[in-house]
Amino acid sequence: MRPLLPAYSSSVVLVVLSSLMFLLDPLLMKWLIDRVLPKKDFRLLVFAACGFFLLYIFRLGFFTLAQLVNFRTIQKLVLRMRLSILERMNLLSADYHEITPVGDRLYRLEQDVDQVAEVGSNLVPFVLQTAFKAIFVMGTMFTLDLRLTLMVLPLMPLFFVFRRKFERPLRRASDSVQEKAAKENSFLQEHLSSVVQVQLLHQEKSQ
């Protein structure tokens, strides 16, 4: 993971910059309403319009670059993880390979690693972007209207209450789904690998 930290850090920085561009929109809108429109200055109005356009371009550009860097980093991480798991499987005893079905081992090597990649490529950037947006928005709210911010803050603990309530059931359901998927994959692997033998036995019995 250490060789990939610079690339992943770059992705995080790009996500932060994208969230920062999201923050500047309401500040520019406040400046437009408070300063530009009362003066009826056409040049400042054009400047504000260009500002909105540039903010959109920079926000989209930073977000796209973050997705691209994150995708390439996750693909490299997936390759390293699969090679590492394969090397460890090769070092395990023959008893393990006889007891553990091929489908189960294949599921661990492919599906589990894909799930880790999905979390890294989708969930982590989404959580980071949401967290930074929340921080920036709260800072903007404190700047624009302190009274409104103090009214909203007491509602924040509800998020942690709901998270704690549903965390364990969701985790148990996720573990159960993974176990059933591994068993299903193992059954299909063994069934497909023995189709020819079953057909030959059926032909022998028919004769």
Considering the chains and any ligands shown, give keywords for the structure.
single chain; 207 residues; mainly alpha; ABC transporter transmembrane region fold; elongated
Major sheet attributes: none
* Helical fraction: over 70%
Overall mean confidence score, pLDDT: 75
Rounded Rg: 27 Å
The share of residues in extended strands comes to: under 5%
CATH topology label of the largest domain: ABC transporter transmembrane region fold
CATH architecture call of the largest domain: Up-down Bundle
**Gap between N and C termini, in Å?**
59 Å
The tally of beta strands, per DSSP, is: 0
General shape: elongated
CATH class category name of the largest domain: Mainly Alpha
Total helical elements = 7
Q: How many structural domains can be distinguished in the coordinates?
A: 2
Q: Secondary-structure element order, as H and E?
A: HHHHHHH
Structural class: mainly alpha
CATH superfamily of the largest domain: ABC transporter type 1, transmembrane domain
**Unreliable stretches covering 5 or more consecutive residues:** none
Can you offer a commentary on this structure?
- With 207 residues, this protein is mostly helical.
- The protein has two domains: 2-154, ABC transporter type 1, transmembrane domain (ABC transporter transmembrane region fold, Up-down Bundle), CATH 1.20.1560.10; 156-207.
- 92% of the residues lie in helices and 0% in strands.
- It is built from seven helices and no strands.
- The chain has helices at residues 5-39, 42-91, 94-99, 102-144, 146-152, 157-193, 195-206.
- Helix 1 packs antiparallel against helix 2 and helix 4 (102-144) runs antiparallel to helix 5 (146-152).
- The longest helix has 50 residues, at 42-91.
- It is elongated and about 100 Å long.
